[in-house]
């Protein structure tokens, strides 16, 4: 996010997952030159970014990085989608319309 480009940045505008199997791929380098250079220095070879969104409500993005190239398996993709949905629900549960963060419950404002 600090570079102003990359898969997580694209997720915020598209609200769709961005799955990059190999950041050393020529297309990724053209699309996000600063991101791919910096991510590569840190050892990332694949990145998978998912929106934290429910309908039109977009709360952010979650990026998952891996040190080897290749696609997610079907099970990993399903788990990632479930994780992003759960993270979105927890984020939205933590902010109530009265402005209270609601952190007095066991999970980000969830009350028993």
Can you walk me through this structure?
By secondary structure, the protein is an alpha+beta fold. It has one domain: Beta-Lactamase (2-Layer Sandwich). Helix content is 38%, strand content 20%. It has four helices and three strands, in the order H-E-H-H-E-E-H. It has a three-stranded antiparallel β-sheet with strand order 1-2-3, with helices on both faces. Strand 2 and strand 3 form a beta hairpin. It is globular.
**How many individual β-strands?**
3
Q: Using the alpha-carbon principal axes, give the shape.
A: globular
- Span between N and C termini? 36 Å
CATH homologous superfamily identity? GAF domain
Question: With helices defined by DSSP (H or I, 4 residues minimum), what is the helix count?
Answer: 4
Alpha-beta content class:
alpha+beta
What is the N-to-C succession of helices and strands?
A: HEHHEEH
Rg on CA atoms, Å:
16 Å
Number of domains: 1
- The CATH topology comes to Beta-Lactamase
**Largest sheet, spatial ordering of strands:** 1-2-3
Strand percentage, roughly? 15-25%
- List the uncertain runs: 105-112
Q: What share of residues is helical?
A: 25-40%
CATH level 1 name: Alpha Beta
């Amino acid at each position: 996010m600090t570079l102003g480009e990359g898969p997580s940045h694209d997720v915020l505008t598209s609200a769709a997952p961005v799955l990059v199997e190999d950041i050393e791929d020529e297309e990724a380098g053209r699309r996000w030159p600063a991101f791919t250079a910096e991510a590569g220095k840190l050892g990332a070879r694949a990145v998978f970014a998912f929106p934290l969104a429910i309908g039109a409500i977009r709360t952010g993005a979650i990026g998952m990085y891996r040190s080897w190239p290749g696609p997610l398996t079907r099970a990993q993709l399903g788990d990632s989608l479930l994780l992003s949905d759960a993270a979105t629900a927890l984020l939205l549960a933590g902010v109530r319309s009265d402005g209270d963060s609601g952190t007095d419950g066991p999970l980000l404002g969830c009350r028993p």
